[in-house]
Amino acid sequence: MLVVAATLKAAQGKGDELEKEFRKLIPEVHKEPGTLTYIVHRALDDADKFLVYERYENKEALDYHTSTPHFKEFFKTAGSLAEGRPEINFYREI
Fold it and tell me: CA 32 to CA 38: how far, in whole Å?
Protein backbone atom coordinates (compact mmCIF):
# COMPACT_ATOMS: atom_id res chain seq x y z
CA MET A 1 0.00 0.00 0.00
CA LEU A 2 1.25 3.46 -0.90
CA VAL A 3 0.39 6.55 1.16
CA VAL A 4 0.83 10.11 -0.06
CA ALA A 5 0.66 13.21 2.12
CA ALA A 6 0.75 16.48 0.25
CA THR A 7 0.57 20.00 1.59
CA LEU A 8 -0.04 23.03 -0.51
CA LYS A 9 -0.71 26.66 0.10
CA ALA A 10 -3.10 28.76 -1.92
CA ALA A 11 -1.99 32.22 -2.93
CA GLN A 12 -3.16 34.88 -0.48
CA GLY A 13 -6.97 34.90 -0.44
CA LYS A 14 -7.32 32.10 -3.01
CA GLY A 15 -8.19 29.35 -0.51
CA ASP A 16 -11.91 29.35 -1.34
CA GLU A 17 -11.19 29.00 -5.05
CA LEU A 18 -8.78 26.14 -4.42
CA GLU A 19 -11.30 24.41 -2.17
CA LYS A 20 -13.88 24.68 -4.98
CA GLU A 21 -11.48 22.95 -7.37
CA PHE A 22 -10.78 20.20 -4.82
CA ARG A 23 -14.52 19.64 -4.37
CA LYS A 24 -14.79 18.96 -8.12
CA LEU A 25 -11.78 16.64 -8.10
CA ILE A 26 -12.54 14.51 -5.02
CA PRO A 27 -15.54 12.53 -6.37
CA GLU A 28 -13.63 11.74 -9.57
CA VAL A 29 -10.61 10.43 -7.66
CA HIS A 30 -12.86 8.21 -5.52
CA LYS A 31 -13.95 6.43 -8.74
CA GLU A 32 -10.40 5.55 -9.78
CA PRO A 33 -9.34 1.92 -9.58
CA GLY A 34 -6.84 1.30 -6.81
CA THR A 35 -7.66 4.48 -4.88
CA LEU A 36 -8.44 3.53 -1.28
CA THR A 37 -8.55 6.96 0.37
CA TYR A 38 -8.46 10.52 -0.90
CA ILE A 39 -9.21 13.15 1.75
CA VAL A 40 -8.52 16.86 1.55
CA HIS A 41 -8.18 18.91 4.74
CA ARG A 42 -8.11 22.68 5.20
CA ALA A 43 -6.07 24.12 8.06
CA LEU A 44 -7.97 25.74 10.93
CA ASP A 45 -5.27 28.34 11.54
CA ASP A 46 -4.63 29.23 7.87
CA ALA A 47 -7.52 29.04 5.40
CA ASP A 48 -5.07 29.02 2.50
CA LYS A 49 -3.26 25.82 3.63
CA PHE A 50 -4.39 22.34 2.56
CA LEU A 51 -3.35 18.79 3.42
CA VAL A 52 -4.21 15.94 1.07
CA TYR A 53 -4.08 12.39 2.47
CA GLU A 54 -4.12 9.63 -0.15
CA ARG A 55 -3.90 5.83 -0.01
CA TYR A 56 -3.44 3.64 -3.08
CA GLU A 57 -3.23 -0.11 -3.53
CA ASN A 58 0.10 0.27 -5.31
CA LYS A 59 2.29 2.60 -7.36
CA GLU A 60 0.37 1.71 -10.53
CA ALA A 61 -2.81 3.11 -8.98
CA LEU A 62 -1.01 6.34 -8.11
CA ASP A 63 0.43 6.53 -11.62
CA TYR A 64 -3.06 6.06 -13.03
CA HIS A 65 -4.37 8.84 -10.75
CA THR A 66 -1.77 11.34 -11.96
CA SER A 67 -2.48 10.46 -15.60
CA THR A 68 -6.24 11.11 -15.55
CA PRO A 69 -7.73 14.09 -17.37
CA HIS A 70 -9.47 15.33 -14.22
CA PHE A 71 -6.20 15.33 -12.26
CA LYS A 72 -4.33 17.12 -15.06
CA GLU A 73 -7.08 19.74 -15.28
CA PHE A 74 -7.05 20.21 -11.51
CA PHE A 75 -3.27 20.55 -11.41
CA LYS A 76 -3.35 23.11 -14.22
CA THR A 77 -5.98 25.20 -12.41
CA ALA A 78 -4.48 24.69 -8.95
CA GLY A 79 -1.10 25.80 -10.26
CA SER A 80 -2.53 29.24 -10.94
CA LEU A 81 -4.12 29.37 -7.46
CA ALA A 82 -1.22 27.98 -5.44
CA GLU A 83 1.72 29.70 -3.85
CA GLY A 84 4.81 27.75 -4.79
CA ARG A 85 4.95 24.02 -5.31
CA PRO A 86 3.21 21.43 -3.15
CA GLU A 87 5.25 19.43 -0.67
CA ILE A 88 4.66 15.75 -1.40
CA ASN A 89 5.79 12.88 0.83
CA PHE A 90 5.41 9.16 0.21
CA TYR A 91 4.93 6.50 2.88
CA ARG A 92 4.10 2.87 3.27
CA GLU A 93 1.51 1.81 5.82
CA ILE A 94 2.76 -0.38 8.68
Answer: 10
Which of 41, 51, 52, 54 is CA-nearest to residue 1?
Answer: 54
**How many structural domains comprise the chain?**
1
End-to-end CA distance of the chain: 9
What CATH number does the domain containing 21 carry? 3.30.70.100
Helices (H), 2-86: 15-30, 59-67, 69-81
Q: Using CA atoms, how far apart are residues 52 and 31, in angstroms rounded to an integer? A: 17
Measured in degrees and rounded to the nearest 5, phi and psi for residue 79 equal -60, -35
Is residue 32 helix, strand or coil?
A: coil
Residue 12's domain comprises: 2-92
Model pTM?
0.93
Intervals of the chain under pLDDT 70: none
* Torsion over CA: 61, 24, 54, 72 (sign): positive
Question: What is residue 79's predicted lDDT score, i.e. its pLDDT?
Answer: 86
